[in-house]
Amino acid sequence: MARILVVDDDESIRLLYKEELQQEGHEVITAATAAEGLALVESARPDLVTLDIKMPGQDGLTALREFKARYRNLPVIMCTAYGSFKKAYASIASDAYVVKSADTTELKNAVSRVLSGRR
Predict the structure, then answer these.
(1) For the packed helices 60-70 and 34-44, what is the interaxial angle rounded to 10 degrees?
(2) The pLDDT of residue 101
(3) 3-state SS record for 26-66
(4) Which residues of the chain carry a pLDDT beneath 50?
(5) In 3-state terms, the chain is what percent helix, strand and coil (to 5)?
(6) CA-CA to 23 of 20 to 30 Å: which in 90, 108, 113, 115?
(7) Which pLDDT score is estimated for 54?
(8) Residue 44, exposed/middle/buried by CB under 10 A (0-12, 13-18, 19+)?
């Protein structure tokens, strides 16, 4: 399957996403900050990134611009706990937008959809 990088400052979300995506057959690596995520993209060469929007230090929207500037074809799924922002972020250069939930169905569907679009 795919190598996925999960970038989120919340350790419980990183662990949940890692476990759920590994059950789908993906290899998952994690980062707690945008800077750590950018460094891992260089070394680990993931096929897809999930990126939290609200993080201390560099936020996800700034990181998204940097990811896309450096790695134009790398798909990025934006993740946030704030569903009210979905329409506001719809025009951003991410490949999908997911509202965080303990039910990871939306995330897994977005990952599948984005990865199948790359093939």
Answers:
(1) 20
(2) 87
(3) CEEEEECCHHHHHHHHHHHCCCEEEEECCCCCCCHHHHHHH
(4) 90-91, 119
(5) 45, 20, 35
(6) 90
(7) 87
(8) middle
Residue type, position 91, single letter: S
Q: What's the pLDDT score for residue 95? A: 87
Dihedral of the CA atoms 5, 95, 9, 38 (nearest 10)?
Answer: 50
Report the residue count for the chain.
119
Q: Is 97 helix (H, G, I), strand (E, B) or coil?
A: strand
Closest CA to 8 of 38, 26, 33: 33
pTM, two decimals, is 0.90
Tell me the C-alpha distance between 108 and 35, whole Å. Answer: 25
Tokens representing 59 are 């936020």
What is the predicted pLDDT for the residue at 34? 93
What pLDDT is recorded for position 85?
A: 60
- Pairwise CA distance, residues 89 & 42, whole Å: 26
The two structure tokens encoding residue 47: 């096929």
